[in-house]
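Appendix B, record 7
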Amino acid sequence: MKDSNYIKIFTGNLIVTQRIIAELEKIDINAVVKEQSESGLLTDVFGGSRDYQEVFVHKDELEAAKKAIDGLTPELEA
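Structure tokens (predicted):
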């Protein structure tokens, strides 16, 4: 998404991404989710998840999105 009006606000696993998207939708922010797959070899050797998601929001909605995600931080760390 280079040279676009969208800014990446999160990178992580599908479960956390879904929670963030739900929170953003509550405040009428339609985020764009880009799915990335890592090499299966790296996952098999080093463990972890093969897939991760990147969440982007329009630059005009960045501040509101940050506030929504900051509010989730304690919940997601528990």
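Remarks on this record: The longest strand covers residues 51-58. The mean pLDDT is 81.
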